[in-house]
Amino acid sequence: MIAAVTVLLAFPLGYFLRSHLAANTTYAIAYLWAFVFQTLYLLLDSLDGGDAPAFDKGEFPTSYGAVALAIFAVGFGMVAAGRWVRERRTVRPRQHTASSLVE
User: Fold this and answer.
1) For residues 30 and 12, what is the distance between their CA atoms, to the nearest angstrom?
2) pTM for the full model?
3) Distances (CA, A) of 52 to 25, 36, 62, 88
4) Which UniProt keywords apply (predicted)?
């Protein structure tokens, strides 16, 4: 779920929102909501004694935390990439300098 939120929201937020702070904050809120939801879902399945629990009892899931942190960081990179693409696609008028007018 956190990967889906990252793929679906990070780049468009960076592309469409002018404020870098607003894009990062919106992505972080959406990601953290999905992270809490996903963690609760996986934890309840582990505590309930499901057929294939995500976490073993008594074992701290460090690999889950590392992967979640990596996805979070990649999302911020995608927000920055969206902003970079938007800045490159905007057409800026060419500024004339004195040397270009003489030629």
Assistant:
1) 13
2) 0.79
3) 35, 20, 18, 47
4) Membrane, Transmembrane, Transmembrane helix
* Per-residue pLDDT in tens (0 to 9) along the chain, 103 residues: 999 999 999 999 999 999 999 999 999 999 999 999 998 888 887 777 767 777 777 777 888 889 999 999 999 999 999 999 999 988 666 666 656 555 5
Q: At what angle do helices 20-48 and 62-89 cross, to 10 degrees?
A: 150
Are the beta carbons of 17 and 53 closer than 8 angstroms? no
Query: What residues contact 55, with CB distance under 8 A and at least 6 apart?
Result: 42, 43, 46, 61, 64
In the chain, where the domains are located: 2-50+67-90
Rounded (5°) CA angle 33-36-39: 145
